[in-house]
Amino acid sequence: MAGEIIEKIAALKRQRRAVILAHNYQIGEVQDIADFTGDSLGLSIEAAKTDAETIVFCGVRFMAETAAILSPEKTVLLPEAMAGCPMADMIDAKQLAELKKRRPAALVVCYVNTTAEVKALSDYCCTSSNALQLVRSLPADREIIFVPDRNLGQYIVDRTGREMILWPGYCLTHARITAEDVAKARATYPDAVVMSHPECNSEVRACSDELLSTGQMLKFAAGSARRRFIVVTEIGIIHSLKKANPGKEFIPVSDRAVCPNMKKITLEKVLWSLQDMQYRVTVPEDIRVRARLALDRMLEVIPK
Ligand code: SF4
Description:
The protein is α/β, with parallel strands linked by helices. It has 15 helices and twelve strands. The strands form three sheets. It has a four-stranded parallel beta sheet with strand order 2-1-3-4, with helices on both faces. The longest helix is centred in the last third of the chain and has 17 residues, at 285-301. It is globular and about 55 Å long. Residues 25, 60, 85-87, 113, 171-173, 234, 259, 261-262 line the site of iron/sulfur cluster (SF4).
């Protein structure tokens, strides 16, 4: 059954001149049929470099929007219309505009997990991989507003010493992971390295060995001489980690670290998406151009 669906996807992909992208948090079956797997910005950049006419983004809405911002000439499809990111939806353009009015001199840095409208109102975009470098590059005398993740924001404040105005957003999936989960996993696997995502809360971050984005986790695990890793982020990444490091062991810190939105996409939905060319994600041109500026300013400071 899965074999048949995979064949149909491959045939339609050729017909539609499509490229399939899968975020690291997608289910394993979807990651396996993708042309590229990775983090949201990296995927959008890869897709922009191809001559594909269609991008099927297996991820959540803001990721498909980012692909549309970088590839306006391509058709961008999200296989599940309701796959959103609750953290990205914790701030909208109106709320950011009000905050900017209260702090007119501040620079606005938005995490890539934001809507296109919020990116359009921001000076810089950043990812969890480059956030520290980006904030360090900003003029020391400027106030900084950081949206929407208070955990990633606090991590940046702790590491850079730059005070920032933090929006109180957070990831519901990472919020389910507790310091007790980490302590239990450590007690069971005392020789393991604890790799945590900076979207985790401060207690979890404080008891971790390494704070890494998903892309950095993949690099760290591949380069490390250690054999066992406790993975403190959404469990989908375990699939890529195991595939890339067959001799190493990766233990999810908690089986509750599952993003229900990321898991909405299945092989069937990828097939239907290509069959019916749905669900198309577009960004109005005026917003796209301004959002693109925030991404370009980031890429000027930190080329991908
Ligand atoms: S894991 Fe968190 S940040 Fe990522 S899509 Fe799900 S809710 Fe959003």
